[in-house]
Amino acid sequence: MDKRRIVIDCNPFFIYVVCFSVPILLYLLDWSYLYPKLSASLIGFLGVTFLISIVIGVYVNRKRALRYMGTVKKLNLINILIAITIGNIMNFIYEGQIPLFAIINLVTIEKYGSFGLPTFGVLISTLGSFMTSYFFYYYIVTRDKKYLFASLYLFIFPILIFSRGTVLLNLSTMLFVYLFSIKTNRLKVYARLGVFLVLLLLVFGYAGNLRSNNQMSKEDSSTARKIMLELGQAKPAFTNTAIPPEFFWSYIYMSSPLANLQYNINTYRVEYNFKSAFRYFNYEIIFDSISKRIGELFEIKRPFNNLIAPYLTVGTIYSGAYTDLGWLGMTLTFCSLMLIAFIYVAVIKPSNPYYTVGLAVLNTIMLFNLFDNMISFTPLSFQLLYPFIFSLKFGKNITS
């Protein structure tokens, strides 16, 4: 493969533009009564960030910073799988249940946001996610099928935890690994991905109905398909179409973060003081596994963002920043995101055997910033460190 090949669709700065363009386009469908009108100030802010991100992305491409080397490092596959398996078993024992089985048996699950032993649970989760993507990349380079099976095996644990978020994050990272590695006709690849995405959104909707049924309507499971239409206040523009109701889950999840951000901007009264500045840097920039402890130490709680509905809780990477420091907070968050991405691309070298996975993780962070602040989300952002940690001494390099 041409080591000088530049992969435009794996440029994290272009991914940022795409991920925020999608909800804007979905807004034009006008399928929900819940959504406020997008303000000129928010559209202008996003437009400026798009322009800056595109300029940086073009600069990165011209510097040929995104190159494929096809280098992997051979690791002890069995030991890693055993370690991750034992770690997850310890988490199940600590929690006293396996969420997937609890949901099937109609047992209410209280802890969806976190699972497992403190700190240890997060480390096992990040390691499992990173290795899921790395084993997949190893398979692409070497065509050794046991690494593909290992990658698929590691999906068992987020499924048992019933963590749709982790499954989607891992699939996203693997997708970027694949896109960065392939040299076939990319148009055909995107056509197939389009079909796969439609099926994935349908499955995602069914999973959402299952969780809603578990939490809200155990007595009558036949109402599960109607729950989201009612909660999302679907307009006739959607209900009068032949589109399966399950797709409304995906519409709401992909567009409601922007709606929440706009609603928060419209209704939240920002206070500028030292406490809000400290709160911003603690909760928006630092790993959340650390910021929680700092917040407890200084007795500073993270404020709640204003929401269009209490059951739609995400508001893009910018909602919390606005709550703390208004437009200044949103600007600082964007600058931090661009700086982190630029430094990461500049520091990690294509010759690093974990380079492709590291870049894929960075792209996933950019993509899922649509939903929440992925800079501070430890289960994902901590994976950016693994390419540097594992490249130190573990294993032997193999180049395709």
TrEMBL record:
Membrane-spanning segments: 12-29, 41-60, 75-94, 114-140, 152-177, 189-208, 303-321, 327-347, 354-371
Domain of life (superkingdom): Bacteria
Keywords assigned by UniProt, alphabetized: Membrane, Transmembrane, Transmembrane helix
Protein name: Oligosaccharide repeat unit polymerase
Organism: Pedobacter metabolipauper
